[in-house]
Amino acid sequence: MCYAIPGRVKAFEGKYITVDYFGEERRAVNELSGLALGDYVYAQGGFVITKVSAREAELTLETWKDLFFELQAIDEKSVAISPWSGKKYEHVRGFMDRILAGGKITREETRYLLGVTSSGEKEFLFSAANYLRQQHHKNSCCVHGIIEISNTCVEGCHYCGISSFHKALVRYRMSKDEILEAVRSAVEDHGFKALVLQSAEDPGRSVDELVDIITEIKQRFGVLIFISFGEIGLQGLERLYAAGARGLLLRFETSNPGLYAKFHPGSSWDERIAHIKKANELGYLIVTGSLIGLPGQTLDDLARDIELAGELNVEMLSMGPFLPHPATPLAHMPSPSVEDVAQVLAVARFTLDPDVKILVTTGFETLSLEARRIGLMAGANSVMLNVTPVDKRALYNIYPGRAHQDDTIDAQIQGTIKMLEGLGRAPTDLSVGQDDN
Ligand code: SF4
């Protein structure tokens, strides 16, 4: 099973190549040597990650050929049934028309959309966000895998179940061999083309070790690597980019420095933002965002969160619900509703650059079994599957009852593909690199 389809190299232009997918052209940064016109490649996140033989590519494309257009038709139909005419909900409609004409909405308008309470207007907002998603990204849906390599954390975030507050938790740190085997299995057995390696803030693993691991993954596997190791230092970011990492997943958690300081004692909001900015300068694809429903958070904070993600050149937005763990000081505080989270994702689709991908987080899926479908129909176009070895997953206990905690990788893949096909989404990464000069 593949999570991207091969494309054919159609043109070269400096470090970029143009790749053709069934007549649709996308640009990608090429770091491979020896590519020629007519070769087949897999590209992810705007980077060529590997060349593929003509035979393998043609077999894959043959399988996809009819399905690709069938899925597009289902997706187009899903947006065509929305109530686009009439003067109902004229604010939402007006914002949508402006965005479709290439304009933007203001922070006050973002704030307005976040404050919509009538169920009819919300439903219209979700449908409109889905329409905007479809207009720009067509039916592509990124499916990345995530491997949680360590749950050992020295930080004391006031809601996190693997923080230093959770004294009873058994801690683990996967060895290099365990990590390489998990990557091998994800890439070779299951066909993942993009993987996130995630760790808590674990001082027990040095940057040198991480560089060694990333270097070996890069040499052995054709996969786009995102790192998510917390604040590993600006120099650490440089060294890991040089080793082959091309994406950074680091949430800023909240755009409000006061709120950040309250719930992340000993951590610096400025330092966190500096990491994201540095990663952007280095050329990493940025996955960032915040918590929805943090105690004391206002709608103005949320509007600013979305705006800040845009300023940080977010490639994929990761905004998920506040889910406090029972072993933490905020255990008694409520989480937002499924509808609240969907509304934030929909508003982000209105506010951010149209290129931005929006993730349905595992946290959101933990709120509801239906969250993935709800999010994808409210402007989102990305999901992550947990490919951590099953015996470690329960220990990466950031909040209780995490979705898919005990599902095998095969079960997650089958469930995801079935759900995506039902919505007319193709698990590909086609909407890449169109204007990344
Ligand atoms: S949120 Fe991250 S840094 Fe904070 S305690 Fe949890 S794993 Fe550690």
What keyword list fits this structure?
single chain, about 425 residues, about 40% helix, 3 domains, alpha/beta, 15 strands, five-stranded antiparallel β-sheet, SH3 type barrels, eight-stranded parallel barrel, binds iron/sulfur cluster, disordered C terminus, TIM Barrel
Walk me through the structure:
The chain is an alpha/beta fold and 437 residues long. It has 3 domains: 7-76, Roll (SH3 type barrels), CATH 2.30.30; 78-136, no CATH class; 137-423, Aldolase class I (TIM Barrel, Alpha-Beta Barrel), CATH 3.20.20.70. It contains 15 helices and 15 strands. It has an 8-stranded parallel barrel, surrounded by 5 helices. A 5-stranded antiparallel beta sheet has the order 3-2-1-4-5. The site of iron/sulfur cluster has 9 residues, from loops.
- The total of helices stands at 15
Q: Helix/strand/pairing class, anyone? A: alpha/beta
* Average predicted local confidence, pLDDT: 92
The CATH topology of the largest domain turns out to be: TIM Barrel
Distance between the termini: 32 Å
Largest pleated sheet: 8 strands, parallel, barrel
- Annotated CATH homologous superfamily of the largest domain: Aldolase class I
Secondary-structure map with pairings?
Layout: E1 7-13, E2 16-21, E3 24-29, E4 40-44, E5 47-52, H1 54-80, H2 90-100, H3 107-114, H4 119-137, E6 142-150, H5 176-189, E7 194-199, H6 207-220, E8 224-228, H7 234-243, E9 247-249, H8 257-263, H9 269-282, E10 285-288, E11 291-292, H10 299-311, E12 314-317, E13 320-321, H11 338-351, E14 357-360, H12 362-367, H13 371-376, E15 382-386, H14 390-393, H15 409-423
Parallel strand pairs: 6-7, 6-15, 7-8, 8-9, 9-10, 10-12, 11-13, 12-14, 14-15
Antiparallel strand pairs: 1-2, 1-4, 2-3, 4-5
